[in-house]
Amino acid sequence: MDISIPDAAATAAMESVLEEAQSVGTRKVEDDSGEVERFRHQVDEFTAKADELEQRVNEVGQFYSSKKHMNNVKAVSLKDKDGEKQIASIKKPQDPVRREAASAKRMQELMRLFSTILRQITQHKWAWPFMEPVDVEGLGLHDYYEVIDKPMDFGTIKNQMEAKDGSGYKNVREICTDVRLVFKNAMIYNDEKSDVHVMAKTLLARFEEKWLQLLPKVIEEETRRKEEEAEASSDLQIAQETATAKLVRDISNEVLEFPELIVIYCHLLCTNTLMHVFQGGFNGASGAHSSQPHSKREMRNSP
């Protein structure tokens, strides 16, 4: 069988053509590598976005799993274009700072009224034994602290009422408790027939009489404060549910953008596949180029 073998010049020309083709392919690969890198960056953004959405969905799930039902906020449909209007229509919570300031102002008024009562008691002619702390050492009352757990006097009460460092009384009931303690300590430690015991018992009765006159206002304020605290808790719940409903809507809108990102991702996969094929083709051509002449030389030199 006659086999035609190209001469050296033809072989050299073939090698030159293959080398030129490989050079053109390499430049094409280098030109496309920048575009591939951009696609990879977009895929990284896509992955990060998916992770962020997953975290936000988990937050929504945790919020609603802790609640059996929603009482204050109507569910916002993910497909409802008026969802934002529904959220905006929810009553805004009252400013907690302003609410607390108003409550503190009302409590100050009660404190002022209580100060009037306290002044009437302390100005009584029998009030002098209770104006200062008991002089335990001076009076030789060595067992006083064994009998009395918490000493109290009107001087200490006055200082607490005037304290500006936040350590003072928070409400009038705390003052009332200490006023009673002044008289009860005296009645506990002193004999029932002693002057101090009689004076304390008389002043305590007078104090309770005046306290009953102020008590309705105190109860009214306490009731109002409880209602405001309940409202504040409800406002906080409304704010959380509103924010969660908005988060659900935002997640839905962002999920709608994912198809475009998925197309980019698929484009990248296809591009990478073509790049591998393209590079593999030139590697194969190079291999064929190196092996074919060698094989022909062997054939030429074979007997």
TrEMBL record:
It comes from the Eukaryota. SMART domains: BROMO. Transmembrane segments: none annotated. Residues 122-197 form the Bromo domain. It holds the Pfam family Bromodomain. Coiled coil: none annotated. InterPro entries: Bromodomain, Bromodomain-like_sf. Keywords: Bromodomain. Gene3D superfamilies: Bromodomain-like. This is Transcription factor GTE6 isoform X4.
